[in-house]
Amino acid sequence: MPTYLVINGPNLNRLGKRDAGLYGSITLPELESAVSARARELNASVICFQSNHEGAIVDFIQEKSGGAAGVIINGGALTQVGYSILDALLDTRLPVVEVHLSNIHGREEFRRHSVIAPFAKGQIAGLGWRGYIYALEYLVAESGGKAK
């Protein structure tokens, strides 16, 4: 059964308490539960991780990517500056889909740039928590259900 990493960066632990107009009302545990349930339906599994610290995200990628089939990442506030996260993702040679709950392209100018997007298979922005589901479905379909 292939495993996919689901990574959430800074402030995403505050989902459900943040601006619902931008981020929805779902909490991070609810989001992770929905992604895990869909993974089981697809005969896959996910390992979810959230940190407000860039180094912890890099450590997680390095520790868990060996048996993974792909990565779903919402870098949060590190999207624009997380070069060490990008390097860790590139080192994995895994397919990556970048996800954002809000439409970052319709928000402040600084949010529109991503260091990860040019190297990702794709970016899903503005579709709320369902973006994670779509990313998972894409990765499972593309990998043919096989881990690296």
Write the layout of secondary structure elements.
Blueprint: E1 3-8, H1 20-23, H2 28-41, E2 45-50, H3 54-64, E3 68-74, H4 83-92, E4 96-100, E5 122-125, H5 130-143
Parallel strand pairs: 1-2, 1-3, 3-4, 4-5
Would you mind describing this structure in some detail?
The chain is α/β, with parallel strands linked by helices and 148 residues long. The chain has one domain: Dehydroquinase, class II (Rossmann fold). The protein is built from five helices and five strands. It has helices at 20-23, 28-41, 54-64, 83-92, 130-143; strands at residues 3-8, 45-50, 68-74, 96-100, 122-125. It has a five-stranded parallel sheet, sandwiched between helices. Strand 3, helix 4 and strand 4 form a beta-alpha-beta unit. It is globular and about 40 Å long. The mean pLDDT is 94.
In total, how many domains does the architecture comprise? 1
| CATH domain class | Alpha Beta
Which geometry do the CA atoms define?
Answer: globular
Please count the beta strands (DSSP E, at least 2 residues each). Answer: 5
- Average pLDDT works out at 94
Largest sheet: number of strands, sense, barrel closure:
5 strands, parallel
In CATH terms, the superfamily is: Dehydroquinase, class II
In short:
By secondary structure, this protein is an alpha/beta fold.
What labels would you give this structure?
Rossmann fold, alpha/beta, five-stranded parallel beta sheet, single chain, 5 helices, 148 residues, 5 strands, 19% strand
